[in-house]
Specification:
The complex is a heterodimer of chains A (298) and B (363).
Chain A lengths: L2 H30 L4 H30 L1 H25 L3 E2 L2 E2 H19 L5 H4 L11 H31 L8 H28 L1 H10 L3 H4 L11 H7 L3 H14 L10 H27 L1
Antiparallel strand pairs in A: 1-2
Helix pairs in contact in A: 2-6, 3-4, 3-6, 4-6, 4-7, 4-11, 6-7, 7-8, 7-11, 7-12
Chain B lengths: L1 H30 L4 E11 L17 H14 L2 H11 L1 H5 L16 H11 E6 L4 E8 L2 H59 L4 H32 L5 H24 L7 H38 L2 E7 L12 H28 L2
Antiparallel strand pairs in B: 1-3, 1-4, 2-3
The chains are: A mainly alpha (298), B alpha+beta (363).
Amino acid sequence: MTSSAFFKRMQLSKQSKTHKKDDLFVTLISKFKPITPAQELKRGFYNFKSVIWALIFKEFKIRLGESKLGIVWVLIELIVSMIVMSWIWLIIGRTKIDNIHVMLFLGAGFTIFFIIRRGFSPVPQGIKSNSALLNYPGVKPIDTIFARFILEMWLHSIAVILLFFSLFWILGLSPIFSDPLLCFQALGSSAMLALGIGLLLGIYQTFYESIGKVISIITQPLMIMSAILYSMNDLPQSAREVLSWNPIVHLVSAFRQGLLGANAFPEYDLSYPTFLGLFFLGIAFISYHANRFRLIQK
Amino acid sequence: MKNRLFSISSFLFIIIFIIPVCVVSIYYIAFASDRYESTASIYITKESTKSNPFDLSLIGITNSSSARDILVLKAFIESPKMLDLLDKDLNLRKHFSNPKYDYFSRLSKNSSKETFFEYYLKHVTMVFDDEARLLLLKTQSFDRHYSESILNGILKHSQTFIDKLNTNISSSQLKFFDAQVKKSEMELAKEKSKLLQFQKQNNILSTKLTAGTIISTITALESELAAKKSLLSSRLDVLSEQAPAIRRLRSSIQGLEKQIALENARLTNKDGNALSDLDAKFQEIKLFLEYKTLRYKSNIDAYEQAQNEAARRLRFLTVVSPPTLADEALYPNRPYIILTTAIIALFLYFIASIMVATIREHT
């Protein structure tokens, strides 16, 4: 018997021993308390929920700790960009777009656009910034994305409330809520699209760093292409046909329609961004499921 | 363990994917009634359009006047009024709520007017082509001939709508000028009758002519007077004051002087009945007459211009392609709908099952 063969056998016996031990453990537990699938789901959901909650609090604390200005900026960015952009219109002398005050019109546009933009920028980086926590067996990569997404949406909704409240308080402008259900539909679809994009980018950004850089270059002209600053109805048909490939245009139009009673452009179709969001989310889930172990290794 | 996981995901697969896709396919293949589509395209022309000096179409701002006409027509076609007209002509409600067709695609029997209108809008679609200024009309119904007749009805009512618009425009525009012309005509006649009355009252055709004759009489009389006066002075050298010839001359000179004074009095008199006063009145009447004539003329010009303008603003509905008769039921597009449902269901299944798997991983 050579030494190497002995070593091999030793390893084999060790493995089989641990296997047996594991099996024994499982059988012991199952004897004491058989787990039904419903119970398993319940327990899994409880753990999932508590992990996400813990991550949300951790992320929020980090956000607060980084700099006080950071969190103030998150809340105020919406108002500042709305004011700066509507200032341009007001200087030109145009106070109304599609018969709606410029500030409300742009505010509604930014509300949707910032949801999508968060899917590009802070949400996908969740995996990387929480990579230390992935060593814990209870924390999965998808939890970090979910936690970040929920936190971002929460901060964004506070920012939106601040925006519309300050518009009402200072200028007396208030949205008419012509179709509240359509508002929620638009917000839900944009959130789904943002989550789909965020998860998909989060997965592949951890594998290939360059993707993040490419995406940040590609998303530069996104605001101009999304009809945030102007109305689609002011554009000629040929331009509208090109821009209507952008799902954000439809979401923005739907939100403005539901919130402010604006007229939709002729090519408008809300089902397009909704299905695209569903598609992105499905693809993201599949690629997460396929790469979940590789992500932890990374 | 493995078996259990399989069971949950297969349960989800059945609930989310197989059942919806089966329900949708069974409904669309076995029950859904065929819908036939008829299409037509129209556009609106104007008699002649003035070319705009600022052609903004180059920078993307289209000249909206003719686009507006067709958008107005579009608004008319998708109005409850059009539905009423079509329902009267073709009994739309009866066709669409016929129990022969399947429950989900037909209109329910006791539906309200609003639901019927919504249903109508779903079955009549319009696409406005911005570049060609064409309006593409599509109607769907459960019968190929019926779709065509609905579209024909729409075109007929659109034609009457455009005609009505034309008459409204021309009549409202011409009415004003017509009234103006009539008014100035009447005023002119009034002035003319005033002149006639004046001429009859004073027995003169024109004060200028009368004044001319009086002046020429006066000059003739004056020259005669001068001749007589010179004759008298030459006779007085020879004859005595008492001579009958001198006396005769003196009396004729006196007569002439009287006549001249009389004629002068006819021209100018302090009483106010003189020719100068008459002339002032006559000139005033004439001036008014001239002014009214001018006004009448300009009003007639304006009327003609308005007529031209109205003719230029007339719109004509042109049918580019007449309503087509469907050969095959294009709707519902069964493979498309089933495939779309399958894809959506599949993605929903992916999301749900992976969500479940992720949750299970947390135990």
